[in-house]
Amino acid sequence: MIEAMSIEARPAGGPETAVECAVTLPTFRRPDHLLRTLESLERQRTRRRFAVIVVDNDAERLEGVTAASPFFAAGRLPGRVVLASERGNCHAYNAGWTTALAEYPEARFLLAIDDDECACEHWLESLVATAERTGADIVGGPQLPVFEGAGTSLWAHHPVFTPPYARTGPVPILYSSGNVAFRRHVLEAMGAPFLDPVFNFTGGGDSDLYARARRRGFRFAWSQEAVVHETTPERRTEFSWLQARSLRNGALSSIIEHRADGSFKGRTKTLAKSACLLLASPFRAARLGLSTRSAVIGLYPMNVAVGRFLAEFGRVNEQYRRPEQN
Fold it and tell me: Where is the Glycosyltransferase 2-like domain (predicted)?
């Protein structure tokens, strides 16, 4: 299935020279931060030729198109502005990767960054160099929160904000599409739609893609040096948001396991795992709460365990349904 999209802007002048890396940048109603993200890409220190594809996922306001088009028209970066008319996180990523594969046939790597992030100056080089050094097919890096508002530094220790790894090298799997590089052949082999639209408003389409890629034999790595800084609104430190995200994380883990093996044996195994996690969660919560000196952070293992059980009854929080509250 090809995403409904249109190319809204191309760079002025003739055709671009060969592009080694294509960076996709989905956006939804964050025009000011989108420009900050583009400026961070403009500052990349690399000899690799790269282009950027901005994917506006708002056919109503077109704020991404309006903000990014002059940036490319001025020749500050080579790239495209694409409108993905179907709402949803997965549709936006799919449109970006579909465009990258079609528009840049010589690109060996396809990278992704979100419109609430700013890349460090060696971000692109670190991701690609790690892939070349380790032989990995997919490489991720840390998304470090930059909290808005006073007195929020404690939340950097909350598991929803903590990177899954801390050292560069091969890893078993990745979890986020907000800081990642794929070798071209991975997306060509997986085929469109790369992210299943069923995850459009819950998130988790990236984790599902990685789980499917691992079953296909693709290898993963982590680049600790490929840092992006994620602007984190103060509302994401509120108890209601943290609890909703924790419950959602648990639900998605259960759903993805069921998708990997939907047989009776597989579903029974997942349910048994959920039961074990629920039984162990009070002890894990107490240990985490004591180590971080925060009862709210300590609740994370319990919320994840409860979320896994809620998913068995079709209860999954759609945090991306109302982006203004996310």
Answer: 23-188
